């Protein structure tokens, strides 16, 4: 049943679907005061994901993260109302590739903002666990926000059975094995995105990416090392190293 036009929570009107989260359908909505909103609607049988996202994200306050404002119910389905991140998902925004060459300043600003978001998140003891282009909304100038926290949780959280978190193309080796995940696992995803910006494509699992003359190549290599203990685990330091190598004053 179409949900457009319905009123959710305290006067938020659903307008149209604009995307999908890991376990949800995301609607563009308009609040009573005219402010745009994002409304994530979860299937009833996945209510635990809505509960989990609200628990971990409702008190996050950072300019590079969307805010989860309050819970709601839509047609018997759990929903979360949050701020709207403007722009396009990362790979749609950077259509001319490799982005580190065609729009270097804007692309690197996106990576810087992603690292800002992760530094704050990791400082709160949380990991995102699904770093991928669909979860990074990018504006025209490269400004970015990290979205979608329904896989997020405490760093090194354990489960009764191994749980493979994330999206295969951006997943760290330990995530693919179902191991508990820490900051270095999120930063592996950043490394994959950085390599995409340098090379213009994602890595082929069967052959290494060619050497690049880009000064950021060394940072890409360190972030994507297969052994987690050999990778950086501090997003703020990775940000500093990126700016040093790129010689940009962000």
Automatic annotation (TrEMBL):
<dbReference type="Pfam" id="PF00069">
    <property type="entry name" value="Pkinase"/>
</dbReference>
<dbReference type="InterPro" id="IPR000719">
    <property type="entry name" value="Prot_kinase_dom"/>
</dbReference>
<dbReference type="InterPro" id="IPR017441">
    <property type="entry name" value="Protein_kinase_ATP_BS"/>
</dbReference>
<feature type="region of interest" description="Disordered">
    <location>
        <begin position="203"/>
        <end position="236"/>
    </location>
</feature>
<keyword id="KW-0808">Transferase</keyword>
<keyword id="KW-0067">ATP-binding</keyword>
<feature type="compositionally biased region" description="Basic and acidic residues">
    <location>
        <begin position="227"/>
        <end position="236"/>
    </location>
</feature>
<dbReference type="InterPro" id="IPR008271">
    <property type="entry name" value="Ser/Thr_kinase_AS"/>
</dbReference>
<feature type="domain" description="Protein kinase">
    <location>
        <begin position="12"/>
        <end position="250"/>
    </location>
</feature>
<protein>
    <submittedName>
        <fullName>Serine/threonine-protein kinase StkP</fullName>
    </submittedName>
</protein>
<keyword id="KW-0418">Kinase</keyword>
<dbReference type="GO" id="GO:0016301">
    <property type="term" value="F:kinase activity"/>
</dbReference>
<keyword id="KW-0547">Nucleotide-binding</keyword>
<feature type="binding site">
    <location>
        <position position="40"/>
    </location>
    <ligand>
        <name>ATP</name>
    </ligand>
</feature>
<dbReference type="InterPro" id="IPR011009">
    <property type="entry name" value="Kinase-like_dom_sf"/>
</dbReference>
